Amino acid sequence: MAISFTLNGKAVNFEGDPETPILWVLRDHLDVTSPKYGCGAGLCGACTVHLEGAAIRSCSIPISAAAGKAVTSLEGLAEKMGKAIQDAWIEFDVPQCGYCQTGQMMSAADLLAKKKQPSSDEIKNAMSGNICRCGTYSRIEKAVKRAAD
Ligand code: FES
């Protein structure tokens, strides 16, 4: 069964099991490697991408849910608000090991799309589902605030 959707603005097709998680369709079939596998259970946020503009855990949502919809990964975010986010991440030297950071930026983009000038508490709350084992949380907060400027 073919599932059609847009990925970073381009029409794509996936032929295979419709229950395949979006994460594995992106990584294994479409060579999009920014979303990472962390827990595989919707708990860590490393796999975060956008579906119709909203942050989702791509490890836990089947590709059938993307049929006819728009999927955006970090690779496609730069053309939108992602440039400000990526610049802020660089300015504050946010990543340590870097593994979780694409998911962090996708969640930040979702937050800033909903709230132009989030408070510290709003940032902490919105980002609380994205786990960083290196503990870069204070730099993430500063970068989100800079991207909002
Ligand atoms: Fe998807 Fe952890 S890998 S939430």
TrEMBL record:
<keyword id="KW-0479">Metal-binding</keyword>
<keyword id="KW-0408">Iron</keyword>
<dbReference type="Pfam" id="PF01799">
    <property type="entry name" value="Fer2_2"/>
</dbReference>
<feature type="domain" description="2Fe-2S ferredoxin-type">
    <location>
        <begin position="1"/>
        <end position="77"/>
    </location>
</feature>
<dbReference type="Pfam" id="PF00111">
    <property type="entry name" value="Fer2"/>
</dbReference>
<dbReference type="GO" id="GO:0046872">
    <property type="term" value="F:metal ion binding"/>
</dbReference>
<dbReference type="InterPro" id="IPR012675">
    <property type="entry name" value="Beta-grasp_dom_sf"/>
</dbReference>
<dbReference type="GO" id="GO:0051537">
    <property type="term" value="F:2 iron, 2 sulfur cluster binding"/>
</dbReference>
<keyword id="KW-0560">Oxidoreductase</keyword>
<dbReference type="InterPro" id="IPR006058">
    <property type="entry name" value="2Fe2S_fd_BS"/>
</dbReference>
<dbReference type="InterPro" id="IPR036010">
    <property type="entry name" value="2Fe-2S_ferredoxin-like_sf"/>
</dbReference>
<dbReference type="InterPro" id="IPR001041">
    <property type="entry name" value="2Fe-2S_ferredoxin-type"/>
</dbReference>
<dbReference type="GO" id="GO:0016491">
    <property type="term" value="F:oxidoreductase activity"/>
</dbReference>
<keyword id="KW-0001">2Fe-2S</keyword>
<keyword id="KW-0411">Iron-sulfur</keyword>
<dbReference type="InterPro" id="IPR051452">
    <property type="entry name" value="Diverse_Oxidoreductases"/>
</dbReference>
<dbReference type="InterPro" id="IPR036884">
    <property type="entry name" value="2Fe-2S-bd_dom_sf"/>
</dbReference>
<dbReference type="InterPro" id="IPR002888">
    <property type="entry name" value="2Fe-2S-bd"/>
</dbReference>
<protein>
    <submittedName>
        <fullName>(2Fe-2S)-binding domain protein</fullName>
    </submittedName>
</protein>
